[in-house]
Predict the 3D structure of the following.
Amino acid sequence: MEYAPLFLTIKTAVVATVVTFFLGIGLALAVARMRRFQGLADAVITLPLVLPPTVVGFFLLLAFGRRSAIGRFLLQFDITIVFTWKAAVMAAIVVSLPLMYRTARGAFEQLDPNIIGAARTLGVSEWRIFWYVLVPNARSGILAGLVLSFTRALGEFGATIMFAGNIPGITQTMSTAVYAAVQANDYDLAFEWAVVIIIFSLVFVSLMNILISRTGAPQRREV
Amino acid sequence: MELDVKIEKKLRNFTLRADFTLRDEVFALLGASGCGKSMTLKCIAGLERPDRGRIVLDGRVLFDSEQGIDLSPQERRVGYLFQNFALFPNMTIAENIRFVARGTRQQREARVRENLARFDLTELGNAYPMELSGGQQQRAAFARILASDAKILLLDEPFSALDHYLKWKLELELREVLKSYGGAAVLVSHDRGEVYRLASRAAVIERGQMQPPHTRDALFENPQTLAATLLTGCKNVSKAERLDAHRVRAADWQLDLTVAAREPQSVAYAGLRAHFLEYREGAEDPARNIFSMEVADVIEDTFSYLVMIRSAGHQASCIRWELPKAEWRAIKAPVLSVYFPPEKIMLMES
């Protein structure tokens, strides 16, 4: 068994999750505060969750391919994205973002708005409110979103194979390795990768449950 | 401390219009729920933006739609006491205060100590808000507001959703805070008792329309409008019209009453508080406002009887009469003569 897909999967998922984490929280706050087009923005960010991943991959291919405006622009700086490791990261970001965004937004919206209003009238800057009031009180939701998007990025297949391909040692992740192994009729190898993926997923979901039960949802105080 | 408010804001079902000035006093906005009174406070605090108007605190313009001034809530220095106190649940009481205190590290620590001590919370500094009782949470919320240098207090229905006893305890604590604070406060409430006990002046808001402010006594003695009469707790209101300078005809009660008030000329409603009715021995004497009434129902309340009476022999609507238990036990008649004190009858225009 060649271990490259394992390391590549972890590397891709970690980088993608870091981006997704900050982007998802930022978008959750931004959309929650929008007064117009809130529904539209929400739909656009959530779309990759409900679309077939192949469709997401197809659109990414169209957007960043050599013939697209973005692709041609990047080519001037000698940057190609399609069928590279960067593409695998981008595919993972797009499909995991809705999970981070939705759980974070849900967590923020469950916060008592009076707490934020109180912080504002007490003179606390928006930045400090974000870091010391919003995030700590929404932490269980944010943690859940983090683990969900990480596991989603780990298991990403459809968009990756469309946009990044299945190049051994370069873009082949564990999930595409399973696919390639089955294609090559190597069921033993496919089974090995499948077991690794299941163990990974179990570990992370258990980790999430432990983290959430430890921190506990912030309780509304009884007055 | 002086606050000048004149704002207008379109809400879902009506337009909010508030116009008042207060000066080193507790000013109350009395209104039913959803009438726009909390929205008025949020506009003052900068948590909501009025469509038009001007808000000035001690010469500092907080909001002016014409000049395009709209200070952020952070810049306004307005202390807002929320109904649920809105302490930060992830911080201890001391951290709650430290988080909003200004100045150097030493100054902030001094403010924490000073405000914990002032509100008798020193031993609870390391407790989290959910470990505190309602009264302690209210004190902590006040400690936090005072540590942040608020120039004025906004009290948003501070005691609703509390049980009776706790409500009373918190009200006593609020009185202490207001005394020691010495500044101005705007109190929003639907409870006439709270307003009467805490405020020196008050205005009624009905569906966003704020009526001109009155001193507390003037508002309760002569509410002038139907909404104000009902909000100040008057249970007896009848449609009425003026017969001459001294008499009105109360249509719902089917009584022609002698009244003391000469104003207003055109009367739409007459009201009389339940405890101002008096029992009279002997026959009725309509010329002296003594009418024969029949008893429709008797309800025993905690410390009084509520006797529902109506004009004898007619299908008139009932009037609620509240009297001490011993007094009613001594009378207890199915038909009796009741005196309507002319100076207590309140008249309202439409």
In short: The domain at 236-348 of chain B is CATH 2.40.50.100 (OB fold (Dihydrolipoamide Acetyltransferase, E2P)).
